[in-house]
Amino acid sequence: MNYFKLVYLIYFIQFFLLTTLGISHPSFKIIYNELDKEYYIGEEIVIEAKIKFPKEIFDDINNTKLIIVNSLSVDPDIFYINQRSTYSPSVINLEGLSSDEDNYYKTIYSGSIYPNKSGSFTLPNLSTTVISETHTGKKWEYVAVSNFEQKYISPLPLDTLNFLSDKSSMVDGWDIKIEQIPDSIIEDMPLSLSVVVFGNGNPNLTRIDDTELYDKYNVASSVRDVIYGDGIIEQDRVIYSYTITSKDIEIDNISHFYLNYYNIENDRWEQKKTEAIQIQVMEGDYSNKFLVTVFLLMIIVFFVVVLYRRSLSV
Questions:
Q1: Quick one: pLDDT at residue 290?
Q2: Range(s) of the domain holding residue 177
Q3: For the chain, how many structural domains are there in total?
Q4: What is the pLDDT of residues 43-97, one digit of tens each?
Q5: Considering the chain, what percentage of its residues have pLDDT values greater than 70?
Q6: I want to staple 133 with a disulfide (CB 3.0 to 4.6 A). Which of 65, 212, 231, 302 is the partner?
Q7: Are 115 and 177 in the same domain?
Q8: Residues 178, 147: one domain?
Q9: CA 281 to CA 187: how far, in whole Å?
Q10: In terms of domains, do 48 and 146 share one?
């Protein structure tokens, strides 16, 4: 009889604690994914954290507000991370749970880092803090830290056949295009040209082969800008902006731009290129007519502004 009273007392105490203090943090665990493969420079390394808890405490988890604080310290000289593309909710939401026979799982962090260099490096560790909030005002904290080991980041293999690796340290996941440009230019008049590399990965390593442009045109300036996407809808964009003038009127196109990259899945170097764009180069005499036209238009605009101001003062 005393045995049954003891069991009843234990269940009563457990029920009291769960309903007044909320779930006790030893009831769940924070688990991190295993990074057990070798990586190339520029290759995506996914870091994930999940909360794991027994199915029988689902209601207790659901009735307790669990605040999540993730911290991943990344050395920007060694790894690149686009913080906009990371998934790091501030509160646990129990929708979309995965499960096995005994437990539920919920992803509470997902982010990708990309090595900027080759060599042996310690991967950045993810620190996860879970803070409970209950209607009683009592709370507790649970802290877990990943234990990722040192990894050797391999350089990309050399391409001794086509020598594509001489002009790139990129891996697959990117594409290239030329932004829209006019179908004709005037000889010796500057033209703005933009080439866009877009995709998801490490934009720090994007390189293009623009040798043909320099062969056919005088390049007055070139600028490289990076626009970061969110990794879901918006892709990262690397924009190469050129100011060029034609070397002679016999040139009839904007040359190819090449994107050389290493395809990890196929274990080979590959190349993408833009299509050559037909363009007409007009003789320099047109430039004088163009300047005269612009000058006349400026005079007309000036008189229109003067007349408009006089009408306002009347």
A1: 62
A2: 164-283
A3: 3
A4: 999 999 999 999 988 887 888 888 999 999 899 999 999 888 899 999 988 888 9
A5: 81
A6: 65
A7: no
A8: no
A9: 6
A10: yes
Tokens of 145: 């830290």
Nearest-angstrom CA–CA distance, 216 and 226: 26
The domain boundary, picked from 98, 122, 154, lies at 154
pLDDT of 83-132, one tens digit each? Answer: 888 999 999 888 889 999 899 999 999 999 999 999 999 999 999 999 88
| Long-range contact pairs involving 96-101 (C-beta distance under 8 Å, separation at least 24) | 99/55
Token pair belonging to 127: 């620190």
176 and 271 in contact (C-beta within 8 Å)?
A: no
**Could you tell me if 243 and 176 lie in one domain?**
yes
Closest CA to 197 of 230, 163, 237, 158: 237
DSSP 8: H
Average pLDDT, the chain: 82
DSSP 8-state code for residue 308: H
**CATH for 203:** 2.60.40.10
Task: Examine the pLDDT at 302 and tell me if it is beyond 90.
Answer: no
Compute CA distances 147 → 47, 122, 126, 310, whole Å. 11, 10, 8, 76
Could you tell me the two tokens for 266?
């196929």
**Bridge partners for 244 per DSSP:** 191, 219
Say if residue 35 is in the same domain as residue 147.
yes
